[in-house]
What we know:
By secondary structure, the protein is an all-alpha fold. The chain has a two-stranded parallel sheet with strand order 1-2.
Amino acid sequence: MHPIIFFSRMDFSQSNLFGYIEDLQELTIIERPVRRSLKTPEEIERLTVDEELSDIERAVYLLSSGQDIQGTSVVANLPALMRQNPAETLRRVLPKIREVLHVAGVEMQLTAAVSFLTVLQEESVSIHTYSHSFLHIILQNLEHRDAGVSNAWLETLLAVIEALPKETIRHEILNPLVSKAQLSQTLQSRLVTCKIMGKLANKFEAHIIKREILPLVKSLCQDVEYEVRTCMCRQLEHIAKGIGTELTKTVVLPELVELARDEGSSVRLAAFETLVNLLDMFDADDRSQTVLPLVKSFCEKSFKADESILVSLSFHLGKLCNGLYGIFTPEQHLRFLEFYKKLSTLGLQQENGHNDNQLQLQTLEQEKKYISVRKNCAYNFPAMIVFVDPKNFHLELYSIFFCLCHDPEVPVRYTMAITFYEVAKLLNSGVYTIHKELVTLLQDESLEVLDALVGHLPEILELMTNGGENSGSESKLLSIPDLIPALTTAEQRAATSLKWRTHEKLLQKYACLPHIIPSDQIYYRFLHRMLTIILTNNVLPVQKAAARTLCVYLRYNRKQEQRHEVIQKLIEQLGQGKSYWNRLRFLDTCEFIMELFSKSFFCKYFFLPVLELTHDPVANVRMKLCYLLPKVKSTLKIPTDKHLLQQLELCIRKLLCQEKDKDVLTIVKRTVLELDRMEISVDAFQKRFYENDLLDQEKERQEHLLLEMEQLEKEKQQNEGRSTNINDKMFEKKRKFVYLFTCCLCKEDKKSKLVRSQSFSTQALHPKYSNIDKCPNKSSATGYTSSVSGMGKSCMLSFSGK
């Protein structure tokens, strides 16, 4: 055996590598006998079960004489046994489980709690049978010494309470709670009682709650243990909603006031959070005379107390300020606003340089809480805009907005990116004041922040473009010179990262840019970048996202010369590219072209380049083309595109006769059948294609309008300096017309996509098409041609008739 020696630098030469392998092999040989000796023959014999036993008998046997792991397996399988044979399971298996649970370990207890809940949810038995068989077992294990087990059984019981009838709840659960709430009971028992009380409040009428539940609630609110008081305080919200406004005012509110002054900080915190959640149930007098003084006292003492109170306070501050808005005096309004501002910058002015290690550790823990406070302030920022009124944003809150967007911690900036859209909506016509922060977040060093912002980027940019609801509808973001560099930087940073989903999402959202940025800027700064991504990126979803966005940019491009250049590059670099992967992406791009452009546009520029791929040397490309051919055929109109139909028929013939790949040939035959069933639309409208043809006509009209727009712009430039009032009016009319169609395009595209998906739904094959062979003779090769030609003639006749 070679000795194993650890060097400072490992030598991976061939001779040494074989030495290491031999060492590893010898180590595995030494280990094998140890693994074999894990189970003795006696243990294996003990674990062996007769295969002829039924599921019920096997379960009873394993619960009676098996090991814990086998018993746990039976308990986990209880829902399946209940589905198969509920009567026998209840009669034989469940009593055994009940016996075993008395001495069972934690794992079996947790498994049983989950299985009992599953049986309830699956409704394997009636609720009466369930309460008779399972409820007592749940209640027996509710006070297990292990807190995790006790909580698991409690969750099961709370779910059962939702389904149980009132009488059963009253006799089996409510009545025993009177003794369980006594001080003589264990702490765990009283905590469980508190949580059950909160659940029962929604099951009974108010008078029953007042008579039987509220006395127990008061007793638990005054318990000697702060854990019980805290737990009961958090249940008061559920109890208040169960008893109504009047009883809440007379019973719950006094208890909350007393708990808010408790000596325990956790009790005071629970009372504060419950008060905030119940604000809607209190009238103006209760809010001004009772709630507001408590809240003011709580806020004043928060900085002197534990920072965890600040975390909760900062989270609820937005809801609190707006809930008490109507009763604030101007002085109180200003005081709460200043308190929010103070929380928003908490910890940023602190100096953390301490030499003592213990102080450094305390400072780190404190800094984490300060970060949570600022994050909560960012979460509440839209609510605070409502609190101060959007008109006063720049004066009162802009400085805080700036600080939060430039916060040194990622979670804070991430939260601001999420809320940015809400802020923009609230500001409306004043949205221009936050454009610099938009650029800042787009250039953020964290991709998490960028990902959060991009979710609503189209809506944000649209708001900034329109300047709110009351501004002009056609202005571009010329007032933000840094926007385009920020957008390009964001895309490049996402592209160089490993988070391809963020990159994909970004590219999808960038499809909105033609509504925001002028056509020339799109062409020079974004369109060619999309083509580069398609050609060089290695992630398929990213390539597809770039391809679709490129097609959108092409759709809105206003210069015919630029459009022709892009189309030529798509055909040469993708459709005729050396890499088969690029040719596959060309077919993906053609799908997007068919979705976004009119049929005539696709037929004019892409129909023949697509058909050329029938001769592609790679089988995967030919196969993908075959899948695409039905969509390609749907773009044809007779008689205008009769020559293209003939080219399609010729390509199908060649594929049937010359295809050598077995898989491709199978797809070709299937595609032929689908093509043979398809009907070709005619130039005139038909009822069956009316909606589809109408959408296509709108797209074609937009494409013509873009051409006319370009021509008018050229004429205007040529006639510059002359009196061209008539041309100016015509130009303005066309420009507005183009823009109106442009705004509606997104809705039309979605509708068009739905219509196409319905029209291409697969139908059952006719028996006469079940035997298609690989071009055995001339007549079989022309079968598709004859059927399509016949269909074309019938379409032409109907067209001429119209």
